[in-house]
Predict the structure.
Amino acid sequence: MSEIIPIPLFDALEFLTLSTEHQMTTIKTQLISNVKIADLISDFQYTHQFLYAYRGSDETFKSYRKEIERLLQWAWLIQGKSLKELRRSDIEVFLEFCQSPPKHWIGTKHVPRFLDHNGARKPNPLWRPFVVSMSKKAYRDGRQPDVKSYMLSQSALQSIFAILSSFYNYLTQEEYAQGNPIAQIRQKSKFLRKHQGKKLIRRLSELQWAYIIETAERMAALQPTLHERTLFIMNALFGMYLRISELAATTRWIPQMDHFYRDRDGNWWFKTVGKGNKERDVSVSNAMLDALKRYRQSMNLTSLPSPGDNIPLIPKAIGKGPIKGTRHIRKIVQNCFNNAIEQLQNDGFKEDAEALMAATVHWLRHTGISEDVKIRPREHVRDDAGHSSSAITDQYIDIELRARHASAKKKPIKIL
């Protein structure tokens, strides 16, 4: 196995341009002595063009970049092949490689891909294509990430199949590749497990959510300048089941106050741009409208926004402008979670506190949808959530699961 340390190939969106000349200068300097592939530059240019087409969606771009970059590095550094030379058997070997990459390809934390150096962007020597993940509870318990514990999840494998298949469809259409080697893999079952029944939806219990929202209210009462924003974020993620990316400002969309608007019937809506760069309108409940009023009043604004009110919805605490990216908002939510965990522990709810340690921001969206689908028509919930089909919304309906488990509770093991 080669001991060559892979380097990042594609920078963040803000540094990605239509031209590949600058990027290629960096890549050739780093790779030319180690890689002897005639089509290396063509591989890079076609990949760059494909990724650049996703510049409208930061999260999608990052997902595609991660998987395709891994393939390029493996093909160039391990196999010594161009993208156009890879066949079905090569992709199968690559999938096995992703499940157990060499230790020097695995990092223990996420770091920037490129660093500024004397006005130029240089590859970060600490960056690795794979990163070992740990649960938040493990971190709280003082455990340290270990490359030996790296594991590729089933969802990550599914992502590899989907993204690389899309990539090779593009290369085929551009007549750069002769076909799609991912689509030619017949026995996907040896890589992907099929799940029978409904997908498990990660959500908060009623007690956990009660503690979280009460914690946010208490934080807002103690430090209104800072935590009225926290309280509003928690309400929006749960009450309108927004994705965290729908609250953060990006190059394609900046959430602002007048994205809350009233229609001719006097009903309030919230306009957002979500997954797949799709715009949708979310119905705003009376409770959510009250949360908005409280939030705006804490900022010395009128109770409700009017057209043209372009104040950022989630502004920075220090400085001007909106919060950009999801990392900062994630920290705000996690801080609230941590305080709620401490309160649950103090009140004797040890199991609920321990379970909450594993929760992520997305659980708020899942919980909001799960609660609403009990009392609202699923089609209404589907459209507010931005689901592409009712089948996705149906995953949140757990009445059948409860009945199924209730009927199984008293099953005997011993038959008299």
Remarks:
- The chain has two domains: 13-190, 206-403.
- Residues 13-190 form one domain.
- Residues 168 and 180 are 5 Å apart (CA to CA).
- The chain is about 45% helix and 5% strand.
